Amino acid sequence: MRKTPTRDQIIDAADLLFYRQGFERTSFAHIAGAVKISRGNFYHHFRTKDEILAAVIDLRLTNTRATGSLGSRVGKSG
Predict the structure, then answer these.
(1) Virtual torsion, Cα 48, 8, 60, 29, nearest 10 deg
(2) Which of 16, 11, 19 is nearest to 49 (CA)?
(3) How far, in Å, CA of 23 to CA of 31, rounded?
């Protein structure tokens, strides 16, 4: 599925809510409410919590790789 601003907002909200409340205690309704979208719009982007979790993990891995890459460049330059 292609990336959209709404999809990115859902992923960011899910990441924060999973951190604060835990995966099991976070519902679709919690995430949709945080982003201020309807459940139908939410389901358009993600059909299961596992799909959201996978997207959150992908985001964190991407951010970790970017940070690690930056850190290695900074370490080599100084």
Answers:
(1) -40
(2) 11
(3) 11
Q: How many residues does the chain have?
A: 78
Q: pLDDT tens for residues 7-61?
A: 999 999 999 999 999 999 999 999 999 999 998 999 999 999 999 999 999 999 9
pTM over 0.90: no
44-63 residues labelled b (16+ CB within 10 A) or e (exposed)? ebbeebeebbebbeeeeeee
Residue in the block written with tokens 């309704």: 29
Amino acid in position 70: L
